[in-house]
Amino acid sequence: MEPETGMETDAETAVTLTERLDRLEKETALLLNHSERRIVESELKVAALRAGMIDLDGLAFLDTHGLVLNEEGKLPASSEMISQLRHDKPWLFKTSSSSSTAIAPQNRQTRPKLATEMSEEEYRIAKARMLKISKL
Fold it and tell me: Among candidates 35, 64, 71, which has minimal Cα distance to 47?
C-alpha cells in the first residue's frame, strides 16, 4: 500500500503545485496590469504639466481605458489627449500671457543725500534748488 500512498502524495503535490502556479500567474497578471495603469497615469500627468494644466484632477475627464504603452514604455497618445482636453476645457490650463515673467526689482527706499556726502558742486546746486523752491 505504500507505493499507492506515495503516488497519491505525488499526485496531490502536483495538483497543489499546479493550483499554486495558477494563483501566482493570476496575481502576476494583476500586478502587471496595475503597474501599467500607474505608468499610463504618470505619462498623462507629465503631459498635462508640460501643457500647463493647473489642477491634475482634470485628468478625470479623460477616458484612459484601453490605453496601452508602446514597446519603449511610453504613451504615444498622451500629447494628443491633453491637447484635445485643453481645447475642450481651457479653464483647466494656464492662460498664455504676452507679458514678461521677469520679477520686478525690489523697491529700495531712497533718501536724500546729506550735505556732508556731497561735493562742493553738488552742494551748490542743491542749495540753489532749495532757495529757488523756498522763494515760490
Answer: 64
